[in-house]
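dumping these here so i dont lose them again. two proteins, back to back, each one seq then structure tokens. dont judge the mess
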Amino acid sequence: MELAVVNINGKETGRKVKLNDSIFGIEPNDHAIYLDTRQYMANQRQGTHKAKERGEVEASTRKIKRQKGTGTARAGSLKNPVFRGGGRIFGPRPRYYGFKLNRKVKELARKSALSYKASSNNIIIVEDFSLEAPKTKEMVKMEANLNIADKKSLFVLPEQNKNIYLSARNTQGVEVVTASELNTYEIMKASTLVLVESAIDVLQATFEN
């Protein structure tokens, strides 16, 4: 699959880049995408939720009323879960939500997500660029030139670039990642994938390794 390379002004440079069919042209596996996305979202959870149970509530331990003769259920402590302020029955406890996923499944998921974007013509190749200083208006202007101003877009860079990251930070609907950090969740969430030209080599080398 070949795509034309454009500059930040949205004009074609006259060059084309061939995308590797083993990465951008496979038969997508929806279940792999589901598993990888589920693992990513599970890893975002802190799992620090906690409720006090009966043995952890601080309250008087005196017996509230006599055992028999009241006509009501017996109760021995204010910590009883049936009373207001008592412990919670089977309350949440701190836990880790992440789970193991094989490397090959994660790799298949990313290839499937990239293939979906390629088949729906939602990939744009931009020649290498840099910003002299962090400027949000430069990123907004670039979005307008690429006709993605009203879409969720994901810019994939070959390496960290602080000025580009800071320029996109306050731009609604724009995310910036490096090729080595690209994950299935972000690919699927974006409407348009904007690949910086030199990031393609990094991306292909990542899958080859």
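---- next one ----
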Amino acid sequence: MASSGSTVRPIESRSVAELVTSELRRSILSGALAPGREFSLREVAGMLNVSFIPVREALRSLEAEGLVINRPGRSSLVSPLDLDDLHAIYRLRHELEPSIAARACHLLTEAELDRLDREAREFGARELGIDEIYEAHHAFHLALLRPAATEWDVRILGTLWRAAERYIRIGFGRLDPDPHEHGRREHAHHDLLEAFRSRDAEAAREGVHQHLAHNEEIALRALEPRADAL
């Protein structure tokens, strides 16, 4: 009989540290905790009504993800947005995603493309902002690439998408008040689907390149000074 120390124990519930990490990550990615915002361990523990220990663990995890900067003996801060980082993220995405798309366009079924087309229509709903559709948008792009993506591709894509998320949410969030932007989102994703539906590898590759280029342009708006800060 194996000793109790050699068995893997089932996880019955998420730890407090995981919950704190999840909530801080959500707040940072949504912009609720703004880039450059300083905060102390005591401040975060008080906001979340937890002890220092899970907050300290959470901040270490978020630092590894590049979302916070921990300064020993001083307050931590939300990592600032950085132009070089943004360009690096999209340079890597341009290297990876179009080549996967060129293969995936031959593997996606018509039924799956039809399903994704129905989802894309929801991106045009005027009452929904980028925060409401972001998770669905993430799932949409993963579904387009998944048939040709390896597990390593998915891991790397997930890292790049999380790194881009703050820029995307802030940049596109500024466009939410414009009613024409919602229709543009729907049409942009419909056009991307048509490139895949053509079963033409070069068309799918170019469609993804164009989609990424436009998203990077919008993400750059996250680096512009906020009007309310002027």
